[in-house]
UniProtKB/TrEMBL annotation, chains A, B:
Residues 24-120 form the HTH arsR-type domain. This is Transcriptional regulator. GO terms for molecular function: DNA binding; DNA-binding transcription factor activity. Coiled coil: none annotated. NCBIfam families: HTH_metalloreg. Keywords: DNA-binding, Transcription, Transcription regulation. It comes from Nocardia mangyaensis. It comes from the Bacteria.
Length: 120, 120
């Protein structure tokens, strides 16, 4: 799923969102469910969290392997799933691949679920 | 998963969260992945959205059946999954069951993923 397909909401729009948004359309629900599916695996969620918690929201794959008890190919597979879901971007620099959180993707997930009761 | 097991974060804490949070622990990741799994189905996500978009974050099951092209037993199953994930509560009043969004559950999901890049 590409960024444009996700119709990403600017981060700054968060505070200005209407307190009650319209229900998701079937198409929006399919797109968003795919993002949640990418986050629905504990190892994948930890890897995402490890990237997100680094200063600048960026981490080298060499930094995030420590402390995760799965093989390097499995880590690479999970990072690829997160990238394909639009949650991370990656960039190769010299020998290492660096992963970065896509803040707009998170804003889209948040704004899709923000309700009056959350704001109240 | 119960509310206490989720160690829910108060909604008001959102704005005061540190800009970079610690990575999720393995236990937190397992708990949170279960919440994302509940939201990772398009029909379930639409049902959640239909409840969340109602004024007061509450809806009668009779209100949210319209426009969702699945059978009533399937709707009931999906609502049960959302309830078991701590995202909805339910209450029977006369002949109908009413579902309500649990705002703390959403705040927990949001705060677990908030990063410096999102706030920047």
């Amino acid at each position: 799923m590409s960024k444009s397909e996700l119709n990403l909401t600017p981060v700054a729009a968060c505070a200005a969102d209407p307190v009650v948004r319209d229900p998701l359309t079937p198409t929006e629900a399919v797109e968003l469910a795919a993002v949640f599916k990418a986050l629905a695996d504990p190892v994948r969620l930890r890897l995402f969290s490890l990237v997100a918690s680094r200063a600048g929201g960026e981490a080298c794959v060499c930094d995030i392997s420590d402390g995760v008890e799965v093989s390097q190919p499995t880590i690479s597979h999970h990072l690829k799933v997160l990238r394909e879901a639009g949650l991370l971007t990656s960039e190769r620099r010299a020998s290492w691949v660096y992963y970065r959180v896509v803040p707009e993707a998170f804003a889209r997930v948040s704004s899709a679920l923000i309700t009056e009761s959350v704001h109240a």
